[in-house]
Design a protein that fits this description.
One of its GO terms (cellular component) is membrane. This protein is mostly beta strands and 143 residues long. It contains no helices and eleven strands. The chain folds into two domains: 30 residues; 92 residues, Rieske Iron-sulfur Protein (3-layer Sandwich), CATH 2.102.10.10. It is globular. The structure holds FE2/S2 (inorganic) cluster (FES).
Length: 143
């Protein structure tokens, strides 16, 4: 007598090991933005839309200080407009007056020419840096 036993089907068990290795890296970048030139030599808020003033606001032979824009606009000759930084080159006060052909600083009495910003009266030794201004119709716009 033979005895045959059926071969049991082997159960295969599969174990899937999922190794999830997630390592998060956080990289922090510290950006350090410092400006090292203490005084910017007169480039007041350029590129703003809208005009700075009307040409009729600027007296012929004189000018007008726009303290909030740190700029002074002059009209040395009829229809000729110039603009300069209103920051005095002596110690950085804002000029506050245009009279008798000069742009005047209240702090120590420096005076600058309305025509080209050059020093007319010390103690400043350097001219007011020019600022570009454009005229469209009757409106003045800083460039
Ligand atoms: S800061 Fe203008 S004269 Fe001194």
């Amino acid at each position: 007598m033979t005895h045959s036993s059926p071969v049991p089907a082997g159960a295969t068990r599969r174990t899937v090991v999922a190794a999830a290795g997630a390592s998060g890296l956080a990289v922090l970048l510290a950006a350090c933005g410092d400006s090292d030139d203490g005084h910017k030599s007169g480039a007041p808020g350029a590129g703003e839309s809208g005009g700075l003033a009307r040409t009729s606001d600027i007296p012929e032979g004189g000018g007008k200080v726009f303290a909030d824009r740190k700029v002074v606009v002059t009209q040395p000759a009829k229809g000729e407009f110039k603009a300069f930084s209103a920051v005095c080159t002596h110690q950085g006060c804002l000029v506050n007056k245009v009279a008798e052909g000069t742009i005047d600083c209240p702090c120590h009495g420096s005076k600058f020419s309305v025509a080209d910003g050059s020093v007319r009266n010390g103690p400043a030794t350097k001219p007011l840096p020019p600022v570009r201004v454009s005229v469209k119709g009757d409106s003045l716009t800083l460039e």
